[in-house]
Amino acid sequence: xxxxxxxxxxxxxxxxxxxxxxxxxxxxxxxxxxxxxxxxxxxxxxxxxxxxxxxxxxxxxxxxxxxxxxxxxxxxxxxxxxxxxxxxxxxxxxxxxxxxxxxxxxxxxxxxxxxxxxxxxxxxxxxxxxxxxxxxxxxxxxxxxxxxxxxxxxxxxxxxxxxxxxxxxxxxxxxxxxxxxxxxxxxxxxxxxxxxxxxxxxxxxxxxxxxxxxxxxxxxxxxxxxxxxxxxxxxxxxxxxxxxxxxxxxxxxxxxxxxxxxxxxxxxxxxxxxxxxxxxxxxxxxxxxxxxxxxxxxxxxxxxxxxxxxx
Length: 311
Ligand code: NDP
What we know:
Helices cover 25% and strands 27% of the residues. It is α/β, with parallel strands linked by helices. The strands form 4 sheets. Strands 1, 2, 3, 4, 5, 6 and 17 form a 7-stranded mixed β-sheet that branches. A 5-stranded parallel β-sheet has the order 8-15-9-10-11, covered by helices on one side. Strands 12-13-14 form a 3-stranded antiparallel β-sheet, with no helix packed on it. The protein contains 7 helices and 17 strands. The longest helix is centred in the last third of the chain and has 22 residues. The site of NADPH dihydro-nicotinamide-adenine-dinucleotide phosphate has 24 residues, from α4.
C-alpha cells in the first residue's frame, strides 16, 4: 500500500536485489523510505538458473526475486512502479521526479538502478530486435523449439543462455571472440560437454543477414577468414552497461567504464547520495546478486548512521 506521503528520509532508486535488500535493512533501522523502480528484480529477474545464492541450490531468477520482494513487502515497504527521470537539490535534500510526473522529496538517495544489456552495435542490429534477435534467452528461448540459434558471448550470461537454449533448440552455436571461455567453471564444463552446443572460438559476428527475420550471420575469424552460418535466432549475451542518465544528472564520479565510484561505505562523490549494485565499481567489480545485496545492506547502514548524526 502506498500512502499519500511524499517526503522521506531515504528514497531508493531501482528495484533490483541491491535496492530490495537496502529496503530490508532500512526497515530494520526503522528508516522511513520509499523504493521507486520500474522493473522489480532488474536483470536478475531474467536469469534462467541461479545456483550460487546461499539457501537456493537451484532457483529461477524470477522466483528468487519474488522471494526477496515478499520479504520487502512483509515489512510494509511500498514499491512505486515508476522511473525516476530527474533529481534536483532542494533545501537540504533532493526532489525526485518520475516518468509519470510524480514528485517525491528525500533527505538521502540510494541509487541502485542497475545496468542494461550491452548491444553489439552492428549497423542493422536494431532492425532485427523481435525478428530473431533477442537479449534475453529466458524470455524468448521458447520461440526456437527445434530451431538453430546462435549465442554471442563467452561468460556466464552466454553460458546460461546456451544451456537453456540447448534444452529447447536443435542446435546452439556459441560464438566467442577469444580462445577460452571465462566465468564459472561449472557452467563452462556444462557448455563444453553439451552435445547440442558448438563453441566457435576466436570469432566475431560481422553482419546479420535477413529480410523480415534473421536468416544467417557472417562471422570473422582472424585465422580462418570469413564464414557464414544459417540460424533462426540470435541471442546477444555480452554483458551489461550502466544506466547513465541519473549518473549524469547528478554529475557523479565514475570509473573509465562508466560505473559509479563508491567508497567502502557505498558513498558516491555527492553528499547525500549513495549507490549500490551493478551500477557501482564496488565488490571488486564482481557483479553478482549476492554482492548487490551486500552493497545494498552496507549502504542502508551507512545512510542510517548519516541521518543519526544529522539529528
Ligand atoms: P561479462 O561482462 O562477465 O561477460 C561479457 C562477455 O561478452 C565476455 O565474454 C566478453 O568478452 C563478451 N563481450 C563483451 N563485449 C563484446 C562485444 N562487443 N563483442 C563480442 N563479445 C563481447 O557479462 P555477463 O553478463 O556474462 O556476466 C555479468 C555478471 O553476472 C558476472 O559476474 C556473472 O558471473 C554474473 N552472471 C551470473 C549468472 C548465473 O550464475 N546464473 C548468469 C549471468 C551472469 P571478453 O571475455 O573478451 O571480455
